[in-house]
Amino acid sequence: MSTLERLGSLDMTWLQIEQRTNLMQVVGVLVLATPLDRAALVDCLSTRLLPMERFRQLVLRDTAGAIWESAPVDLDAHITTVNLPADDQAAGLRALIGELAATPLDPARPLWHLHLVPDYQGGSALIARVHQCIADSIALIRVLQSLTDASPTAEPPLPPEAPNFFDRLCAPLTDAVIDGIKLSGAIWARYLSLLFNPTQVFDYARASTALALEIGKLAGLHDDSHTFLKGEPKGVKHVSWSAPIAESAVAAIAQARETTPNAVLLAALSGALHGYLSRQGERTTGTELRTLMPVNLRSEDTPDVLGNRWGFMPLELPVGIADPLDRLAETHRRVAHFTETYDAQRALGIFSLIGQTPRAVQLQALKLLATKSTALLCHVPGAHEPRYLAGARIVEQMFWSPPSGDLGLAVSIVSYNGSYQVGLLADTAMVPAPAAITDQIQAQLDALGTKAPRRRKAPA
């Protein structure tokens, strides 16, 4: 029997702010060492994904907003099998992901779709697209974990993993943090009530007050550098990601330079961006690129893991520093300061609010966001050990959250099975060939390596 449920205000946001040039869908790809059997995949989805009701619901729009409608799901309609050219399958996979990132999901079905490449470099590849209104990327990573196993046959629970700083951004808020936010003022208390009760009837007065606070916080940030990485998206997307980088190698650099692996990775990313801008003739001296990082704003006792309950934390990358070790020292200083001052009150919750405002207000807020920032930056913590999907071992995984408004760049740092990979989803108006950036990550790490001259780190 079909059931109806109105979209919560926060999930509705992602339907409202979607534009033709920037579709609000999370995109991911898994590369598997062995062929993935379609029948086994269907069985996995039937038993593990479809019990989550959101993946059985389509969205019906009405004059008051939108409604979830539960209905039977035809999995064959949600899994498309596609073959790639045999001459360069890696390039073919990247091109397909970029094309799909710019292709809307079928509104007549639940808003998710898989593309299975059954024959990819001796194994398979699986591309997933899920609309942001179903869940944010933090929640969707947990969905993926629930679909995979620690061996081709066993199904034990995931072991606990020691979190680093960026993992903290994905962790639910503790009662102590929530109480601290509530004590900081009535406006945040009202805003949190929207986050923790997202299906309540939307209160325009309360949302308007909270939105004014968010716009004020955003307007208070200085504009980041105006490079050609800013502009108006065309809606044509390309993706790339680096080769796997051993966590042990990054840790060795961090130890030698008296810093952290996170600072090393961000310094390498900044160096790759510095080099790309320089090669394109851009003046880089003093260039600052502000990124926005998703922060989980769920409480520890939140019963529903899906939906949208996140904000954004700003972090500036010192792209304008030419010397690799000076750039690392400055990145170390910024990450240390970021760590020391982190609390959820700094998170920008603007995306959780603008979806229920008039279109003119939405456009104004999104343009302000593009003025104050250049890219979305997500750190995706994966399992420390290999995972298996329907019996096939995952050897690489990459995910991108959707950039909104006029943002044209989404950067992801994914950790999995002892390696890091850095991925970029870019609009061609900003970066026509993102591999020109991600292909330089290893060279930037080499420039920070232990054989380079040692320098004392900047004070934290």
From TrEMBL:
Top-level enzyme category: transferase
SUPFAM superfamilies documented for this protein: CoA-dependent acyltransferases
Domain O-acyltransferase WSD1-like N-terminal as annotated: residue spans: 7-161
Residue ranges of every copy of the O-acyltransferase WSD1 C-terminal domain listed in the record: 307-448
Record keywords, A-Z: Acyltransferase, Glycerol metabolism, Transferase
Pfam families, per database record: WS_DGAT_C, WS_DGAT_cat
Catalytic activity, EC: 2.3.1.20
Catalytic activity: an acyl-CoA + a 1,2-diacyl-sn-glycerol = a triacyl-sn-glycerol + CoA
Family the UniProt entry places it in: Belongs to the long-chain O-acyltransferase family.
Protein name, UniProt field: diacylglycerol O-acyltransferase
Source organism per UniProt: Zoogloea oryzae
